[in-house]
Specification:
5-stranded antiparallel beta sheet; mainly beta; single chain; rod-shaped; 454 residues
Length: 454
């Protein structure tokens, strides 16, 4: 129902086209109007985007409803005022009841306010409204507003009616008041308004936030079952569920019932837990050996989703060789002689390892090795998977050679090629040692992952 005009407001004047041209000709006023229109458009766009992504319904007055959803307050009068919210009170009807004393000699008011949780706003309100059988004169007015405008007003007796109001505000106030200043003689009649079957649509505008701590046990190769710890927090409706994703596929989900409150239909303005600390147990034996992308996501009451940082998990479930392997005689092939006499023995590389399995683009990592003899070490970096490979056949991005001495050593590897950062994804490092006679060791490949620099 549209609000009636305010008698205290001065009459509006029609604005002619000439007046509009004069207004726009003033730079300061035109600039102010432009900024005001832009601000209104941005606000409307924010409400529309949020409403489609994060809305959830709350049965405000229903079984197991919360008793403090509406805050009732009244201005004192000589005859007294009373207001009652019976949501969730055993043996009482599930409704919001506003009642005024029948004999009042001054202007008075009683109101009830519904306030949205932090980082949310009330988008819509549905309810059934009913008045007392003996509605007083027009000196009594019932109205509901959102703090900026009157959304619905009743100043005459009316039967039960369904309400469907667009609120778009952080607060909603229902008021029952006498409008006359100085006198409001109701002749002993008792104005009563009751609202039941109240459903508020709450829009959550903030997705959940997830944090995964650094765990040293996950930085190197892992095997068996590992624990993925995380903390999820939310402002608004709260955390409804969390899910562990491995390589983009869901592996496990934890529902957060919040002692039965976080279940549809929601009956609390904040139905789900605002924070939860959990851990997922990941059985890596069900994964292939190699690098896997692991992330935890959380969905809140309004179906907004947040995700943690991505973990690059290197799985290695290769069985260890037996302590005393059986020996069987094998024929040893002859080794071609070296130049200058003697037997030719190919050089060997042992102790191959990278200082880190994942590194941010732009950072360096160390390649460690143990050479059986002096020679030339050749190292090539090749994209393996993800954005790094770009769907093309793997070709070395860079190849470097270093003269090394016999024994343990290390060389730095850069994640920048020809001045450009490596793309995020999986890469392979191919290593081979060649001695002065041209004999080469067996080729070995290590893997690492490049993460985003930010």
């Amino acid at each position: 129902m549209a609000a009636p005009p305010n008698r205290n407001e001065p009459a509006r004047k029609d604005v002619s086209k000439e007046d509009m041209r004069q207004n726009l000709s003033r730079p300061s006023r035109a600039l102010f109007i432009a900024f005001a229109l832009a601000a209104i458009a941005l606000l409307a766009g924010a409400f529309a985007a949020s409403a489609s992504a994060g809305a959830y319904d709350v049965e405000v007055c229903s079984a197991n409803g919360q008793t403090d959803a509406f805050r009732v307050a009244g201005e004192p009068s000589t005859a007294g005022l009373e207001g009652q919210n019976t949501c969730g009170v055993p043996g009482q009807p599930r409704l919001l009841l506003l009642a005024q004393a029948g004999a009042t000699s001054i202007k008075s008011q009683i109101s009830a306010t519904l306030k949205a949780p932090d980082d949310t706003f009330i988008e819509r309100l549905k309810a059934v409204r009913a008045t007392g059988a003996d509605w007083p004169s027009d000196e009594v007015v019932w109205e509901v507003g959102n703090g900026r405008a009157v959304l619905d007003r009743l100043d005459a007796a009316r039967t039960e009616e369904n309400l469907d109001l667009q609120v778009n505000s952080t607060e909603l106030t229902a008021a029952l008041r006498c409008t006359e200043v100085g006198t409001c003689d109701l002749g002993g009649r008792r104005p009563i308004i009751a609202m039941r079957a109240i459903v508020a649509t709450i829009v959550d505008i903030t997705p959940p936030n997830l944090q995964v701590p650094n765990v040293p046990a996950l930085e190197g190769p892992v095997k068996g079952t590992v624990s993925i710890f995380f903390r999820a927090t939310d402002l608004g409706g709260g955390i409804r569920s969390t899910t562990l994703l491995v390589d983009g596929a869901p592996v496990a989900t934890i529902e957060e019932p919040n002692e039965g409150r976080c279940q549809i239909p929601f009956r609390f303005l904040v139905p789900c837990a605002l924070a939860t600390d959990r851990a997922y147990l990941l059985d890596t034996t069900k994964l292939s050996n190699g690098i896997h992308d692991v992330v935890v996501v959380a969905d809140d009451a309004g179906n907004l989703r947040g995700e943690s940082r991505h973990l690059s998990l290197t799985v290695d479930n290769t069985a260890a060789p037996p302590a005393n392997p059986p020996t069987t005689p094998t024929a040893t092939p002859p080794t071609p002689p070296k130049a200058g006499g003697g037997m030719r023995v190919a050089p060997r590389l042992t102790g191959l390892a990278l200082s880190r399995k994942s590194v941010k683009a732009g950072k360096r990592l160390q390649l460690r090795f143990d050479a059986s003899e002096a020679g030339t070490l050749s190292v090539a970096i090749t994209p393996m998977a993800g954005a790094a490979a770009r769907g093309k056949a793997a070709k070395p991005l860079t190849t470097l050679t270093r003269a090394v001495a016999a024994g343990p050593g290390s060389i730095p590897l850069a994640t920048r090629v020809r001045g450009k950062l490596l793309r995020p994804g999986a890469y392979g490092v191919t290593i081979r040692l060649r001695d002065a006679d041209g004999s080469a060791s067996e080729q070995a490949t290590l893997r690492f992952r490049v993460l985003r620099s930010r």
